[in-house]
Design goal:
The chain is built from eight helices and seven strands. It is an alpha+beta fold. It folds into two domains: 56 residues, Beta Barrel (OB fold (Dihydrolipoamide Acetyltransferase, E2P)), CATH 2.40.50.140; 171 residues, Recombination protein O, C-terminal domain (de novo design (two linked rop proteins), Up-down Bundle). Strands 1-2-4-3 form a four-stranded mixed β-sheet. The chain is elongated, with a radius of gyration of 19 Å. The termini are far apart.
Amino acid sequence: MTLLTREAGKLFAIAKGARKAASRLAGISDPLSAAVMDLAEGKRNLFVTQAQPLSSFRGLRTDFERLSYAIALLELYAAVIPSEQPQPEAYDLLETSLKALERHDKPLVALVWAEVALLAMEGFQPQFGQCVMSDAAIEVAEPFVSPIAGGFVSESEALRFTDRFRVRAEVLYGLERLPELESPPPNLRFANETLAALFPFWRHIAETALPANDAVVSEAVHGVRLDES
């Protein structure tokens, strides 16, 4: 299992027998399970010896959309949080984000906020308000952004980056303001497009496949559940 712990950061551990229905470790081995665990160090691996469940985020497990968003968020944490480095703020942010996904009237808005908060915490937040190269302001309705450049690039600079793509200026204004918020806003205009705009940045940062996020973005952009009010 991949664990995010408050005391030791991201760890990898084995829960022997957890796949058996009668196992006392069965419940805590599922994704989205919070627990107090005792870990024993073997020659090569850590092993879960005891566990006391704390929360299973039932509100996420009973709603497919919310569950999909939560799994996608876990995938991002697994990709960017460094191993075996204590980072209690990462644990606390994930817990806050999962509770927001569980309760927010618009879970897509909560997901976008949670992603931006993670980017900011880990030092990956792109620059969306001014051109990365020249500090120029946004002057067109659909400016360019580039993951390689690290955010918004002006028309005169964009040709330098082969990964550039256009997004609404309103999306960039929203992304620039989100890191200032301690909790998800009640609403976010163009939330679907904002999620889609973040995804290329995540792929660039993670440098690995993100299938859960790929599915969530595809559903948000092309599916029937849209949230652009």
